[in-house]
Amino acid sequence: MSLSSSSKQCILITLLISIFFVSKAQIDLSHRFTYEEFDTNATGNLYFRLENNNFVKNNEYFGEYTEGYTLPGYSIQPSLMYYAGNKVRIKIGSHLVKYSGTNNFTEVVPVVSAHVKIGKNWDMVLGSIKGHVHHKLIEPLFSSDWQYFVSTETGAQFYHNTSNYG
């Protein structure tokens, strides 16, 4: 069976058009968590930042290996950010998680971090780091469901900003 010339042209045009589309091999969930990029021109400024993530996680499985659940709720993170110089930013706030059906917040965690520009493209974050879905790891290595159960990640983080990654 051979293809007609119009079919070949259609396939060729489809392939050429598809070259211009970006595809990813995994789900991009970074829209759920934002991280304020460093502003080197904000020296001496104090900002109030309010982050919110409303969710309804529906994992209703009926099998012998995994018990299903539905998880509605929200997380909210009010914070103050102060630029102590053109290379240092301090962030202080709290992260609150509330699951629907509970009377109180399920989790209340302090958020404290220092973000330091250590070079043109190099950054260091100490304290509450740029975590969760920003790690950009595949699902078997880092479950995206952790964003509902683990409020903030803490530690020391070094990362490099380029146009090719990040």
From TrEMBL:
Annotated protein name in UniProt: Uncharacterized protein
Q: Which organism is it from?
A: Saccharicrinis fermentans DSM 9555 = JCM 21142
Lineage of the species this protein comes from: Bacteria, Pseudomonadati, Bacteroidota, Bacteroidia, Marinilabiliales
